[in-house]
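Worked example 3 (structure in, sequence out).
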């Protein structure tokens, strides 16, 4: 048994237009000369039912208002009915999105292309409260003389008190004449920047500012060479050198303690490397080492992850995990015993993401001195990490760290083989390295620089962990104060105050513009829905108006519609022709009055504006088309006989290929463009008949009655092409 076909079962059939009915009515009008009300209702399709639920707007039903607007939860790509998010986006960038949450939330810095290395260092310096205070205390006259220091101060002031969530670093980067598209090494940048700032600040008369770089970052070391024979140190050993960071090896080393041991280890000089001792007067074996003489308040460790490969003359990044403590005691590292408490707390970790030396991305993890909260500074984006540098939950509980996989950092003898090598912190038992106390330790594959702050007395370190709104500034005596006892001088305070005012005004203006736009759209949507619900005419007896479908469609789709325009549905007599029924809709008087009152224009075309003249002309055209169709049909049979050879007697030549195409065309109501040029291909450039052997010049003789019909059609479609319809009788040369 064959399977029943279901292909067309659910197919949506298009309505067949009432062409035959219309033609019959027009033939009746032509025959009788009378037009009844029933004829008008059928010709103008007034009696068609009001549509509901069509997927498209039906053209042959003037009572269909479907699909002019999308369904309740639908939208369109443009115009009135597009998504609200797209409408808001078209207004331009929303400045409110860049609004800083609060003063307790640090601001970011814009990345100008490849300036992440500079942004990370700048954030580390700004978040150091003592350094920030020193920079803010520089006199205006000194700032004017040193553009780099001036721009740094302005940048710090914006980071401190701006309402923006991130600050444009372009002015400062431009002053340094840095190439935005080339990434530099963050360590080199810090070294050069501190050196430059030290020179600029030396011109200040404010003691706090003048030596702030040296006071915070400078320590002293000695390179000591000791004779193994007499035990005396070289004269150069007494010389102390300044350092602003300690460069530590990480290759083959797993912890910060191991790297410090390596840095301070003894180097034996013997053989070709023997040392000439002045006391002994000869070359002798000796030892050489680095001695730490004094330590700064901010201790920077540069981890030497980039090594040079002699074989390839290339640099390679070491990505092995490196362990470092949250608390570091440097007491035993000094060359001479000190009574000072040299306990340091981890304050910042500079991260270099990526495996390549000359590319990748820098971010900074920095601890807020006031609150103890850690923050991740990734250019414009600043994220709160809680009380751990790699995110909350990164403890011995084994929970994952934000943006990384957990790994347990243990003493070398207790390392777990196969552990994931990435960032994590873990509480460990007491260790001789950390004063016998439990100390948090952290491991990172990408840590590039470590910053430790010297621990202050408890009384000095007490601070309230209070969140303060940026807008709640207290302006007194032209100074801007914050509750953390840091202030902005008047010249900076005024600038920041003006920048904030301008920015907040911009935010407010955008909000007003957005609200006006959304209110306008909401009102327009309500207007469209309301008018379309009133548009259908309840009954055939009620008066109504005709309106252009094109104008109605753009009115329903545009936010700001144009003036009402019905000219496209008017005939030459100023009435409504039956031929325009597919381009217009029939609406109620109530709806028309509202349209006309709000949008003016016109003209007003009522139910009395049927064009009888056009109807009579249309009826005549239909009858003429009937006559033309019948004539063409009968003559087509004659042409078939000519082509088949049944009819060989003829009086006029036509192109054979043209006649073949003519017989294949559908039977039309009037001639078309293809009916032109029946003798073009058989006519030579001189206007005579081409030889039959010429290419494409084959012809046939047709009877005079067929030729006259062909000639008449050709002249109708191309009246100016006289040569294209040249007449070639039987005796043509």
């Amino acid at each position: 048994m064959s399977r029943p076909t279901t292909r067309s079962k659910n197919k949506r059939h298009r309505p067949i237009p009432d062409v035959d009915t219309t033609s019959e009515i027009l033939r009746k009008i032509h025959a009788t000369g009378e037009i009844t009300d029933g004829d008008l209702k059928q010709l103008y399709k007034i009696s068609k039912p009001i549509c509901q639920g069509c997927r498209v707007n039906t053209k042959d039903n003037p009572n269909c208002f479907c699909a002019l607007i999308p369904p309740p939860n639908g939208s369109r790509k443009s115009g009135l009915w597009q998504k609200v998010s797209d409408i808001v986006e078209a207004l331009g960038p929303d400045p409110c999105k860049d609004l800083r949450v609060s003063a307790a939330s640090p601001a970011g810095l814009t990345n100008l292309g490849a300036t992440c290395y500079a942004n990370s260092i700048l954030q580390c310096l700004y978040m150091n409260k003592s350094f920030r205070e020193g920079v803010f205390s520089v006199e205006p006259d000194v700032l004017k003389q040193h553009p780099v220091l001036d721009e740094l101060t302005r940048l710090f002031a914006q980071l401190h008190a701006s309402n923006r969530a991130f600050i444009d670093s372009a002015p400062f980067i431009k002053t340094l004449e840095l190439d935005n598209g080339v990434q530099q090494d963050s360590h080199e940048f810090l070294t050069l920047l501190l050196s430059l700032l030290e020179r600029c600040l030396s011109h200040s008369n404010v003691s706090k500012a003048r030596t702030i770089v040296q006071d915070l970052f400078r320590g002293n070391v000695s390179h000591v060479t000791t004779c193994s024979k007499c035990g005396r140190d070289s004269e150069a050993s007494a010389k102390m050198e300044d350092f602003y960071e300690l460069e530590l090896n990480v290759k083959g080393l797993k912890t910060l303690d191991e790297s410090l041991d390596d840095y301070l280890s003894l180097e034996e000089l013997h053989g070709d490397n023997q040392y000439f001792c002045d006391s002994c007067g000869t070359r002798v074996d000796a030892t050489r080492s680095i001695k730490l003489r004094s330590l700064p308040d901010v201790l920077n460790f540069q981890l030497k992850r980039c090594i040079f490969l002699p074989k390839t003359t290339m640099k390679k990044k070491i990505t092995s995990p490196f362990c470092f403590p949250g608390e570091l005691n440097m007491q035993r590292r000094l060359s001479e015993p000190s009574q000072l408490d040299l306990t340091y707390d981890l304050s910042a970790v500079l991260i270099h993401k990526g495996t390549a030396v000359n590319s990748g991305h820098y971010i900074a993890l920095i601890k807020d001195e006031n609150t103890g909260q850690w923050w991740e500074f990734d250019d414009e984006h600043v994220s709160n990490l809680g009380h751990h540098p790699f995110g909350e939950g990164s403890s011995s509980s084994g929970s994952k760290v934000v943006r990384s996989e957990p790994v347990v950092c243990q003493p070398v003898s207790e390392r777990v083989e196969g552990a994931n090598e990435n960032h994590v912190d873990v509480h460990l038992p007491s260790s001789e390295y950390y004063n016998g106390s439990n100390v948090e330790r952290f491991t990172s594959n990408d840590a590039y620089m470590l910053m430790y702050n010297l621990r202050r007395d408890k009384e000095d370190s007490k601070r309230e962990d209070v969140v303060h709104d940026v807008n709640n500034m207290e302006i007194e005596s032209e100074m801007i104060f914050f509750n953390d006892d840091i202030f902005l001088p008047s010249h900076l305070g005024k600038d920041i105050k003006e920048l904030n005012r301008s920015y907040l005004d911009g935010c407010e203006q955008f909000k007003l513009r957005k609200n006006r736009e959304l209110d306008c759209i909401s009102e327009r949507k309500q207007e469209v829905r309301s008018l379309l619900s009133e548009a259908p005419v309840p009954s055939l007896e009620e008066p109504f108006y005709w309106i252009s479908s094109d104008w109605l469609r753009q009115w329903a789709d545009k936010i700001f519609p144009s003036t009402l325009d019905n000219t496209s549905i008017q005939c030459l007599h100023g009435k409504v022709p039956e031929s325009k029924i597919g381009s217009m809709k029939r609406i109620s008087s109530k709806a028309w009055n509202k349209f006309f009152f709000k949008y003016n224009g016109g003209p007003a075309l009522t139910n009395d504006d049927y064009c009888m003249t056009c109807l009579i002309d249309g009826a005549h055209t239909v009858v003429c088309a009937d006559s033309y169709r019948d004539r063409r049909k009968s003559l087509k049979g004659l042409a078939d006989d000519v082509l088949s050879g049944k009819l060989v007697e003829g009086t006029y030549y036509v192109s054979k290929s043209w006649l073949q195409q003519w017989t294949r065309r559908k039977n039309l109501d009037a001639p078309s463009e293809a009916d032109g040029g029946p003798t073009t291909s058989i006519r030579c450039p001189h206007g005579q008949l081409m030889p039959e052997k010429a290419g494409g010049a084959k012809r046939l003789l047709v009877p005079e009655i067929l030729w006259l019909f062909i000639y008449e059609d050709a002249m109708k479609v191309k009246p100016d092409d006289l040569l294209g319809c040249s007449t070639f009788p039987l005796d043509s040369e």
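Notes: The two ends are 70 Å apart (CA to CA). The domain at 20-73+522-608 is CATH 3.30.2230 (DUSP-like).
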